[in-house]
Amino acid sequence: MTAPRRVISRLAGVLSGATLALAMPVLAQETDTAGSPQLGLALNTVTATETGGCRLTFVIRNDLGAAIEKLVAEAVLFDAEGRVATMTLFDFGTLPEGRPRVRQFDLSGQSCAGIGEVLVNGIGTCEGADLSPDACLEGLRLSTDTDIEVTG
Question: Same structural domain for residues 63 and 82?
Answer without folding.
Answer: yes
